[in-house]
Amino acid sequence: MIGLASNGAQVLETLRRRKADVILAAVDLRKNEHLLVFKQIFSECPTPIIMLVEKDQLSLELLQEAIGLGVYGVILKPGPAARPAYRTKAEEICRKVAAVRDSEYWDPKKRLSMLREEAQLLPKPAQNVSRNATADTIIVMGASTGGTQAVEQIIRQLDPTLNASVLVAIHLPPKFTHTYSRRLKGMTDLTVMEGRTGLIPKPGKVIIAPGGRNMIVQTVMGNASNLKIGFSEEEGHDLPSVDQLMIAVAQSGVRRVIGVILTGMGKDGTAGVMAISQREGGHVIAQDEASSAIFGMAKSAIESGKTDKVLPLSEIGQYLNRYVAAGQQQVSTTDVNS
């Protein structure tokens, strides 16, 4: 053994000084958010990794990403999360560390197949959604001039039991959105709040992007379908950026993404619409010209050829209710028949 480390920086420092045959590391190692340490190891000093992970943390998305970064084996942490009983895993750890040198699974696809089976990462039966789970359908609304009134009209129409999360980006200055979020709360039984780092887009939650900041979504523990609110420092003419928010959600692993482009000047949202339309489970709605205060953003989205529906503002809320409910019914039917 060449060394011990309590965080990612120490791991990298040790590897830069001495070559290791294999690394035994927990996925929640400090400073390894979004597998950053694993990525640095893979880039600077490629070394096979045996990854320690809790059963609840393990997902197919995490496994796929980790294998691409040199993970050769997975060990499920034993016992309570606070005090894992690693002594019970001593034989398995020794066996897997020794096996790395002679591993036949150098090919990532073969490794993924082997580790999925070993970790019993098989499709699970439908269960009640966890209170902390990300919604499997996310609606992203984008607007500019006239957008506050347009969003208000839609929010008033949304079903209070809507099984989706709604993320809203309107071109507004800082501080204004706090007051606007409070105003929307009085119009719906859905939970309305201004976006802040770490919020989870749960079903029934409406999150308003703070004025002057680019709100996005980020993955939690490498799970592409488990999301939290974050912010991008990327500069841009339009703040909050509709494109950045839509693209971030489109690139996530949530089951369905619905993009809604409303009234506003310019072309912000067109790139986001294209990202949503290209992914499985993507659906795009644009507000029609007659009901738009400024027919710029919606017009640009429509002209891209990537919108699925063009509707008057008065019909968008009810359409969303029906579309979300129909998708949920389809999932329930599939679960029963599978």
UniProtKB/TrEMBL annotation:
The active site is at S144, H171, D268. Residues 1-92 form the Response regulatory domain. It catalyses: [protein]-L-glutamate 5-O-methyl ester + H2O = L-glutamyl-[protein] + methanol + H(+). InterPro entries: CheB-like, CheB_C, CheY-like_superfamily, Sig_transdc_resp-reg_Me-estase, Sig_transdc_resp-reg_receiver. The keyword Hydrolase applies. Its EC number is 3.1.1.61. Keywords: Chemotaxis, Cytoplasm, Hydrolase. It comes from the Bacteria. Residues 132-327 form the CheB-type methylesterase domain. This is protein-glutamate methylesterase. It comes from Pontibacter amylolyticus. The gene is cheB-3.
